[in-house]
Design goal:
F1FO ATP Synthase, transmembrane, mainly alpha, ion transport, 68 residues, elongated, F/V-ATP_Csub_sf, ATP_synth_F0_csu, 0% strand
């Protein structure tokens, strides 16, 4: 078996942000469905949460290449 354990670590670390993004947008859709007038307030918060969750995935990818 060839490769590095860092690649396996990145694959496992991508699960967390993937689940996080799903939960963020599920909560956003639920909030907008309950109160459509709150869409303007909820949308920037959802995109900020999405950006922070994706930053974790990108950080994990960078670390996988650094320790390769």
């Amino acid at each position: 078996m060839e490769g590095n354990i860092a690649i396996l670590g990145y694959g496992l670390s991508a699960i967390g942000p993937g689940v996080g993004v799903g939960l963020i947008f599920a909560a956003y859709i639920n909030g907008v469905a309950r109160q459509p007038e709150a869409r303007g307030l909820l949308q920037p918060i959802a995109f900020l949460g999405f950006a922070l969750a994706e930053a974790l995935a990108i950080f994990g990818l960078a670390l996988a290449f650094v320790f390769k």
